[in-house]
Design brief:
Blueprint (H helix, E strand, L loop, with lengths): L8 E3 L7 H7 L5 E3 H11 L5 H7 L3 H7 L5 E11 L2 E7 H14 L9 H10 L9 E3 H10 L7 E5 L1 H11 L9 E2 L5 E2 L2 H14 L22
Parallel strand pairs: 3-6
Antiparallel strand pairs: 1-2, 3-4, 4-5, 7-8
C-alpha cells in the first residue's frame, strides 16, 4: 500500500507465511515501510545476523531495538458511522506495544510495568482470545498526551488488509466478509460485520419456500424431510 507521501508499506508477516508458526512464536503484527524492509533484506545477507534479524520481526519492540530510528506506524480501521462520517479506531493492543517503543526512541523510556501501562492493560483486557479491543483516535490522542509522546514520530495509516479487501467485497463481490488481521495474526471482523455475516449464513442460505431441511440433524421435526 502506498501513502500520499510516497511511502510504501508492508508488514512483518510477509516473512512468516505459516499461521501455526505465528501462533507458536507469538509473532505480533506490525507495519513498516519498504525502505526499512530493503535495509533488513540487505542486512540479512550476513549469515551471522540472520537468526537475530528473523527474531527482530517477532514484534515491534524487537524490531525497533535493531533499527532504533525507524519510522513508527499504527494502522487505523474504519468503524461505525458517526454523523455520516466513518470513524476510525486503532487496536488497543497495538497502542500498548507502540507507547514504550516511541518513548524509548525519544529518549524518555519507561518500565514495562509502568503504572499507566498497567492501568490500560487492565482496562482493555477482554479475557477472550477471540475478541480484540479497539479505541477511538480521540482516545489515542489523549493517551499520547498522558505519556508525553512526540506525536510527530508516529504515522497513523489505513489498515492495508482492510484497504485490499474492501473493494473485493463491495465492488467485485468476491468476498463475503470484511476481515482484518488482529495484532496476534488471527482474522477478525468488526461486530457489525459479524452480525451481517451471521444473517447471510443463517437466514439468506435457507430456502424459505420449503419446510424441509436436508442438511442439519438438529433441525426441528417440522423442518425435516418427510
Amino acid at each position: 500500500m502506498t501513502l500520499p507521501d510516497g511511502s510504501e508499506l508492508t508488514t512483518n508477516y510477509y516473512v512468516f507465511h505459516n499461521l501455526e508458526q505465528i501462533r507458536k512464536l507469538k509473532i505480533k503484527y506490525f507495519i513498516y515501510d519498504t525502505q526499512d524492509m530493503k535495509r533488513w533484506q540487505t542486512d540479512f545477507k550476513n549469515v551471522e545476523l540472520r537468526q537475530s534479524l528473523v527474531e527482530s520481526l517477532y514484534n515491534l519492540d524487537a524490531y525497533q531495538q535493531v533499527y532504533p530510528e525507524r519510522k513508527l506506524y499504527i494502522r487505523s480501521i474504519p468503524s461505525k458511522k458517526e454523523k455520516r462520517k466513518e470513524a476510525s479506531r486503532v487496536f488497543a493492543e497495538e497502542v500498548l506495544d507502540l507507547i514504550p517503543v516511541v518513548l524509548r526512541q525519544q529518549n524518555t523510556p519507561i518500565s514495562e510495568n509502568d503504572d499507566r501501562l498497567m492501568k490500560y492493560r487492565s482496562k482493555w483486557e477482554t479475557n477472550d482470545k477471540d475478541l480484540e479491543n479497539t479505541i477511538s483516535l480521540t482516545e489515542f490522542w489523549y493517551i499520547l498526551e498522558e505519556f508525553d509522546v512526540d506525536k510527530t514520530r508516529i504515522m497513523i495509516c489505513p489498515d492495508p488488509v482492510y484497504e485490499l479487501t474492501m473493494p473485493k467485497m463491495v465492488k467485485e463481490l468476491t468476498m463475503r466478509t470484511l476481515n482484518v488481521i488482529s495484532p496476534w495474526g488471527e482474522q477478525v471482523m468488526r461486530s457489525e460485520q459479524a452480525v451481517f455475516h451471521i444473517f447471510q449464513v443463517v437466514y439468506c442460505s435457507v430456502n424459505w419456500t420449503t419446510d424441509s431441511c436436508r442438511t442439519h440433524d438438529e433441525c426441528l421435526k417440522d423442518f425435516k424431510v418427510k
